[in-house]
């Protein structure tokens, strides 16, 4: 049973792997035995995280370098860098993402193009360009894996002023299902994560210290923000043997936010 969640001999690429959910996933995969390539726009940050992970005395290893999925040229360069480092790619985790928050009346046109380019176009185009490597590594019993990071804000109407971000994550979730359907016969699974609040650079304004995390946690049905183990468990399941027969799924790592609804519509009548 122990090998259900091990990744010995696997090679993974995680975009946006220097902070937040990407950093958590990278650590989990290294601890599970994978060789993990970490890329983001800030290459020095990826190099620093790789050094930290390599100091864990874990069975896997990490390499960090710069990679930008926000432009076509950036994606081309990232794919080229991956191919210079490895001929094998078993797992692709599309985690890079940006957000933009403003009131509806002030929400700018540019907030759509910039967010969509990274969160949607970047996910699709990077996956498309790396598909030959993924297809080469997958087989009937152990398919290659694509894990796309969406958001609970892409599942339920919860914009909180991040209109383009929420819409982009809904697109990621739907795109993941389409790709799952089209790539299953090529021995590639495609699944999505739909996280709720986790400690990250993006959510630092709301999760930057214990007091803030406690306040946010009160609005989560399970009473807390997400932690490393929540991401690690989900990612290792989808990446390992235990998740080999799962594709097109959306894993709601949101503490129950995904099933929140309004008040009982008959509550007043029952008082």
| Subunit organisation of the chains | single chain
CATH class label: Alpha Beta
End-to-end separation: 51 Å
Please tell me the total number of domains: 1
In percent terms, what proportion of residues is strand?
Answer: 5-15%
CATH architecture label: 3-Layer(aba) Sandwich
* Rg for CA atoms: 19 Å
The number of helical segments is 9
Main sheet overview: 7 strands, parallel
Q: How are the strands ordered across the major sheet?
A: 3-2-1-4-5-6-7
In sequence order, what are the helices and strands, one letter per element? EHEHEHEHEHEHHHEH
Q: Which word captures the global form?
A: globular
Averaged pLDDT:
93
Notable traits:
9 helices, Rossmann fold, 13% strand, globular, alpha/beta, 42% helix, 271 residues
How would you summarize what this structure contains?
The chain is of the alpha/beta class and 271 residues long.
How would you explain this protein's 3D organization?
This protein has helices spanning 20-31, 43-54, 72-85, 110-137, 163-183, 204-207, 210-217, 228-239, 267-270, and strands at residues 11-15, 35-40, 61-66, 91-94, 144-149, 188-193, 250-251. It has 271 residues and is α/β, with parallel strands linked by helices. The protein has a single domain, classed as Rossmann fold. A seven-stranded parallel sheet has the order 3-2-1-4-5-6-7, with helices on both faces. Helix 1 (20-31) links the parallel strand 1 and strand 2 (35-40). The longest helix has 28 residues, at 110-137.
């Amino acid at each position: 049973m122990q090998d259900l969640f091990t990744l010995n001999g696997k090679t993974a690429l995680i975009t946006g792997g220097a902070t937040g959910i990407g950093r958590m996933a990278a650590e989990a995969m290294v601890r599970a035995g994978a060789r993990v390539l970490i890329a983001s726009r800030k290459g020095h940050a990826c190099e620093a995280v790789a050094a930290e992970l390599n100091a864990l005395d874990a069975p896997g290893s990490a390499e960090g370098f710069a990679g930008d999925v926000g432009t076509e040229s950036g994606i081309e360069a990232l794919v080229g860098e991956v191919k210079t480092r490895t001929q094998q790619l078993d797992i692709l985790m599309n985690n890079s993402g940006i957000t933009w928050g403003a009131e509806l009346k002030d929400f700018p046109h540019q907030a759509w193009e910039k967010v969509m380019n990274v969160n949607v176009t970047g996910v699709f185009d990077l996956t498309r360009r790396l598909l030959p490597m993924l297809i080469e590594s997958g087989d009937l019993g152990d398919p290659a894996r694509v894990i796309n990071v969406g958001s609970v804000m892409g599942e339920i109407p919860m914009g909180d002023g991040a209109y383009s971000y929420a819409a982009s994550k809904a697109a990621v979730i739907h795109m993941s299902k389409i790709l799952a359907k089209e790539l299953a016969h090529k021995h590639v699974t495609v699944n999505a994560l739909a996280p709720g609040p986790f400690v990250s650079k993006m959510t630092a304004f709301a999760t930057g210290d214990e007091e803030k995390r406690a306040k946010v946690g009160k609005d989560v049905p399970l009473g807390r923000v997400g932690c490393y183990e929540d991401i690690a468990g989900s990612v290792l399941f989808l990446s390992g043997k235990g998740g080999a027969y799962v594709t097109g799924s959306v894993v709601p790592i949101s503490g129950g936010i995904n099933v929140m609804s309004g008040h009982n519509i008959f509550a007043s009548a029952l008082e």
